[in-house]
Description:
Elements: H1 2-6, E1 10-16, E2 22-28, H2 29-38
Antiparallel strand pairs: 1-2
Amino acid sequence: MMVRLLGDRPAALVREISKIHQQVIRGTLSELLESCGSNPFRGEDGAGGIGFRL
């Protein structure tokens, strides 16, 4: 749905591993969706801090 709504634009997924370390995955929205399907994140699932402008 995000690709349809926003277009296949560059984006990043960021998760905090600890208070010091983060994991950042960059790509287009379709690449990130494909990446998450084959290698899903484990742990807590939350949307804190996620925001975008239309």
